[in-house]
Design brief:
This protein is α/β, with parallel strands linked by helices. The protein has a single domain (3-174), classed as Rossmann fold. The chain is built from 6 helices and 9 strands, in the order αββααβαββββαβαβ. A 7-stranded mixed beta sheet has the order 5-6-4-3-7-8-9, sandwiched between helices. A two-stranded antiparallel sheet has the order 1-2. Helix 3 crosses helix 4.
Length: 178
């Protein structure tokens, strides 16, 4: 399946979550068995040469793609969650959103010092969440090899923000506009 075919499986919902936004809904791609397999295969082709120790997925759709990618590569998977969702002792980082702040956490000790990790999420927009996750991983002594996304919204500058922070980043498909 080509990237054009994958792109065609992503539903665009206008004016969600607010007027003027074109929401790129990946759930339609995830529901297509061939599309999901091909997306994970494309992501694995990018990730395999990096030979990461762990795949780290950002809540929530990053869990789906990250776990599938970890399975495809024979690697372990670590979730980065929103505040208060993990049962054990956690480490975390606060970060700014458009309106307010949020917090990402992972279990303390889950990512060993020196681990080479691949950060995965479904979509990159402004990059705020991915930047915070990368910083949290670095604070734990991990090396972030790359941030890998199914979808990039290049007009919002997230890839450029990651690059400026020294994080290599790649997406399988891209949509112009916000």
């Amino acid at each position: 399946m080509s990237t054009d075919s994958l792109t065609a499986l992503v539903r665009t919902i206008p004016d969600f979550p607010k007027p003027g936004i074109l929401f790129r809904d990946i759930t339609t791609l995830l529901a297509d068995g061939d599309g999901l397999r091909d997306l994970v295969d494309c992501m694995a082709a990018v990730a395999r040469p990096l030979d990461p120790d762990l795949i780290v997925g950002i809540e929530a759709r990053g869990f789906i793609l990250g776990a599938a990618l970890a399975l495809a590569l024979g690697k372990g998977f670590v979730p980065v969650r929103k505040k208060g969702k993990l049962p054990g002792k956690t480490v975390g980082i606060d970060y700014c959103l458009e309106y307010g702040t949020d917090r990402l956490e992972l279990h303390e000790g889950q990512v060993p010092v020196g681990a080479r990790v691949l950060l995965v999420d479904d979509l990159i927009a402004t990059g705020g969440t991915a930047l915070a996750a990368a910083q949290l991983l670095r604070e734990q002594g991990a090396s972030v090899l790359m941030a890998l996304f199914a979808i990039d919204l290049p007009d919002l500058g997230g890839m450029a923000a990651l690059s400026a922070d020294g994080v290599a980043a790649q997406a399988i498909i891209a949509f112009d506009g916000e």
